[in-house]
Model the fold of this input.
Amino acid sequence: MEYIYQLILIFFLYSFGGWVVEVLFSYLFEKHKFVNRGFLTGPICPIYGIGSILVIIFLTKYLNSPVVLYFMSIVIASILEYSTSYLMEKVFKNRWWDYTKYKYNINGRICLETMIPFGFLALFMMYILNPFMFSIIKSLDPNIIKNLAIILTVLTIIDIILSFNIIITLKNISNSIRCDSTEVITKRVKEILFSKTILHRRLIQSFPDMKVFNRTAILKNKLEEDKHKLKEEKKKNKIKGKRKKK
Done:
């Protein structure tokens, strides 16, 4: 059980570290001002913490092979980011980030430009950061580790509840807009949220590339996909018919 509490602290340390990286990147290369990045209100990006824990659990046995560790870390990071994007879109009906502007991407959910650095970050984490952080954590009293892990977990659960309430507000606003254009819906939702509390505005600032959908837009996209599939099927049938005639 003590090791689990240690992993919980490691999760929060890397979640905080990921948040710092996101904030610095936004400050230096994008907005040139402080933006509280991430889905949650607090200074953590859980996807970094989850990714770190997965790497520790599944890839520690590859410490003697940096090349394998590097590429396996990319695989884990890619699966995690893609599945997170997919699930969040299905649950909240919003696309929170979009990599379609990058050349090598898969459905705009992951891209090569972000995956390659994650591999190097994993190497830095496993060979340098982990030994250092685990040595510090293990030097603490077990009760302190346990209490810290419990307190941080409770605070994060509260943060998740608050953030979900904001997302529900976003979802209700999008469904109230009588339009099937994703661009128009997204623009209108952002305008409404910016007129609300600082927590609502923070979400928009954290995900400037988000795309917002409503029921009408989702239905329209589904119909367009079905039409495209039908056209493809007709083309295939024509080609098969011509081959049979020959």
